UniProtKB/TrEMBL annotation:
Belongs to the phosphohexose mutase family. Its cofactor is Mg(2+). Pfam families: PGM_PMM_I, PGM_PMM_II, PGM_PMM_III, PGM_PMM_IV. The keyword Metal-binding applies. Keywords: Isomerase, Magnesium, Metal-binding, Phosphoprotein. It comes from the Archaea. SUPFAM superfamilies: Phosphoglucomutase, C-terminal domain, Phosphoglucomutase, first 3 domains. This is Phosphoglucomutase. The keyword Phosphoprotein applies. Residues 388-443 form the Alpha-D-phosphohexomutase C-terminal domain.
C-alpha cells in the first residue's frame, strides 16, 4: 500500500477525503509524470466516471489538473470502468483515469489511474505520482500549451466489440429471457442495450442512472439482492444478472431465484473457454474455488494462483499470456478485450454459454464439480494485516497447515479456509470451502474462532 493508493487506486468519503483539491493535484501529479516520461510528445488521457453524485465535481477537478500541465483529455462521461479501460486502447491514449468507488456506498468516491493498455497503473509509477503529489513539484504549462478537452462516446464501440466476441446468432435463436439490475450505476448505460442487441428478452430493474443508489446498496451480494432474487423467480426468467456501481462485476441468479456464487459463474466461463481453445492458462486468486483447478485438469488447462485483486490477476494474465482470469467475487477478466474485470463481457459470454447449452441455468451450475463455499466478514479497526498475521501464528502453533501468500489460508485434506484483510474497507473477510456444506461451515467457524483469539492479543 502506498501513501495514497491502495490495491487499485484510492477511495474515501467524497468531499471529505476525496475532495476537488485532491483530484486536481492527482491530475497535476500524474500529468507531470507523463510529461517527464515523454516531454516532446503530444499527450492524451481518457477520463470517465460512474454515476455517483460527486463524480462530475471530481471529474472536472481532475480534468483541470491534467489540462494545467499540458495534457489533452478525452472525456467519455459516465461509463462502466471496463469501458473506460477499453477506451485507453481504443483511442490510443497515453493513460487514463476512472472516477469510481465501485461497490462502495454512495457517499464514497475514488480515482483509478490507468496505463495506455487500460491496466491499472504500475506500483512504481504510482509511487512517483505520490512523490510529485506531496512535494507539489508540478509541471506548469505555458498559456498556449494548456491541454485541450474533447468529448467522445465509448459506449457504442464497447458494446460493438463485445458483440463481435460471441455467437450472436446462437443467442438470438434461443432468445433467453433475462431480468437485470444495474443498481442505478454505470452499467445502466450498457447492459440493457447489449442484452437486447444480443437477442435476449429483457426486463430492466434499477436501470436509470442515479448516484444516490436509491434501490439498493451497489454491492451485488446475496444479502442486497433478496428482492431481486424473488423477482427473477416470479417472472419465470431464464436467469437474472445484477451489477455493482461501476459495472466491472456481474453476478447471476438462476431460474429458481438462487444466488450463484461468483466462483461458479467464473467456472462456467473457464470451462467454455478451455473447451473452445483446447486448454490454456487460467489465472485466479488463492481465494477462488478449487472448482477451477478441477476444470483445468478435465480440459487440459493450467492454473496460476495469485494474491487477491483484479489488478494482480490482470498483470499475471498479461505477463504469462493467460487465456482468462477471475476472482471469487464474480469478476472475470478477458485479456484480449480489457485488462480488468469486465461485467458486460462476462454477461455476454454467459448468455452465449446458456444459449448453446440448451440447458436451464441451474443445470449448467449443477454440471460443475461439487464444492461448497461459505463467506462472512467482520468489521475491524486498526492494523488489520497485523491481526491476520496473528491468526497465522496461532494456527501454526495449533499444528495447522498455513499458507500466507495473501492473508492466512489454512489447508485441510478436503478444503481450505482463508482470513484476509480487505484492501478497501475496514473489514476482515473469512472464506471457507469443502466438498460438503457441513465441512465448509466447520472450517468457517475455525476461521472465526482464530480471528477472535487474534483480536484478544
Amino acid at each position: 500500500m502506498g501513501r495514497i493508493f491502495g490495491t487499485f487506486g484510492v477511495r474515501g468519503i467524497a468531499n471529505e477525503e476525496i475532495t476537488p483539491e485532491f483530484a486536481l493535484k492527482i491530475g497535476m501529479a500524474f500529468g507531470t509524470l507523463l510529461k517527464k516520461e515523454q516531454p516532446e510528445k503530444e499527450l492524451w488521457v481518457v477520463i470517465g466516471r460512474d454515476t455517483r453524485v460527486s463524480g462530475e465535481m471530481l471529474k472536472n477537478a481532475l480534468i483541470s489538473g491534467f489540462l494545467s500541465v499540458g495534457i489533452n483529455v478525452i472525456d467519455v462521461g459516465v461509463a462502466p470502468t471496463p469501458a473506460i479501460q477499453f477506451a485507453c486502447k481504443y483511442f490510443g491514449t497515453d493513460g487514463g483515469a476512472v472516477i469510481t468507488a465501485s461497490h462502495n456506498p454512495p457517499e464514497y468516491n475514488g480515482i483509478k489511474l490507468l496505463e495506455p493498455n487500460g491496466l491499472g497503473l504500475k506500483k512504481e509509477r504510482e509511487t512517483i505520482v505520490e512523490e510529485i503529489f506531496f512535494k507539489e513539484e508540478f509541471y506548469k504549462a505555458k498559456w498556449d500549451e494548456i491541454g485541450q478537452l474533447v468529448e467522445r462516446d465509448i459506449i457504442r464501440p464497447y458494446i460493438d466489440t463485445i458483440k463481435a466476441k460471441v455467437d450472436v446468432e446462437a443467442i438470438k435463436k434461443r432468445n433467453p429471457f433475462v431480468v437485470m439490475d444495474t443498481s442505478n450505476g454505470a452499467g445502466s448505460l450498457v447492459l440493457p442495450y447489449l442484452l437486447r442487441e444480443l437477442g435476449c428478452k429483457v426486463i430492466s430493474i434499477n436501470a436509470q442512472p442515479d448516484g444516490h443508489f436509491p434501490a439498493r446498496n451497489p454491492e451485488p451480494n446475496e444479502e442486497n439482492l433478496q428482492d431481486f432474487m424473488k423477482i427473477v423467480k416470479s417472472l419465470k426468467a431464464d436467469f437474472g444478472v445484477a451489477q455493482d456501481g461501476d459495472a466491472d462485476r456481474s453476478v447471476f441468479i438462476d431460474e429458481n431465484g438462487n444466488f450463484i456464487q461468483g466462483d461458479k459463474t467464473f467456472a462456467l466461463v473457464v470451462k467454455a473457454m478451455l473447451e473452445e481453445n483446447k486448454g490454456g492458462l487460467v489465472v485466479t486468486t488463492i481465494a477462488t474455488s478449487h472448482i477451477i483447478d478441477e476444470l483445468a485438469k478435465m480440459y487440459g488447462g493450467k492454473v496460476l494462483k495469485t494474491k487477491v485483486g483484479d489488478l494482480v490477476v490482470s498483470r499475471a494474465l498479461l505477463e504469462h499470456n493467460g487465456l482468462v482470469g477471475g476472482e471469487e467475487n464474480g469478476g472475470v477478466i478477458f485479456p484480449d478485450h480489457v485488462l480488468g474485470r469486465d461485467g458486460a463481457m462476462t454477461v455476454a459470454k454467459i448468455v452465449e454459454i446458456f444459449a448453446k447449452s440448451g440447458k436451464k441455468f441451474s443445470e449448467l451450475i449443477d454440471d460443475l464439480p461439487k464444492f461448497y463455499q461459505v463467506k462472512t466478514k467482520k468489521h475491524v479497526e486498526g492494523d488489520r494485516k497485523a491481526i491476520v498475521a496473528k491468526v497465522a501464528e496461532i494456527a501454526d502453533k495449533e499444528g495447522l497447515k498455513v499458507d500466507t501468500t495473501d492473508g492466512t489460508k489454512i489447508l485441510f485434506e478436503d478444503g481450505w479456509m482463508l482470513v484476509r484483510a480487505s484492501g478497501t474497507e475496514p473489514i476482515i473477510r473469512i472464506f471457507s470451502e469443502a466438498k460438503s456444506e457441513k465441512r465448509a461451515k466447520e472450517y468457517l467457524n475455525i476461521g472465526l474462532k482464530l480471528l477472535e483469539e487474534a483480536l484478544k492479543l
